Amino acid sequence: MRVTAVDLETVDAKAIRQKLHLTQDEMAAFLGTSASGYKKWEQGARQPSGAARTLLRVMEKEPEAVLRALSN
């Protein structure tokens, strides 16, 4: 059986968003979540999980690639 490591570090959604020069509403739309839910991530009240967490990690490492892929 193969065991995969799980990334338990917190994600700094605000720092990633500011690096991309996006508003909270724009970032929420890119991530497919509500603006209120996204704001809770920035405030530290909640942490993203699943696909949103993974996408934030990719945005942190390759922001331009993600924005190109998600743009119309």
TrEMBL record:
InterPro entries: Cro/C1-type_HTH, HTH-type_reg/antitoxin, Lambda_DNA-bd_dom_sf, MqsA/HigA-2. The keyword Coiled coil does not apply. It comes from the Bacteria. Pfam families: MqsA_antitoxin. SMART domains: HTH_XRE. GO terms for molecular function: DNA binding. The keyword Ribosomal protein does not apply. Keywords: DNA-binding, Plasmid, Transcription, Transcription regulation. SUPFAM superfamilies: lambda repressor-like DNA-binding domains. Residues 14-66 form the HTH cro/C1-type domain. This is Type II toxin-antitoxin system MqsA family antitoxin. It comes from Agrobacterium rubi.
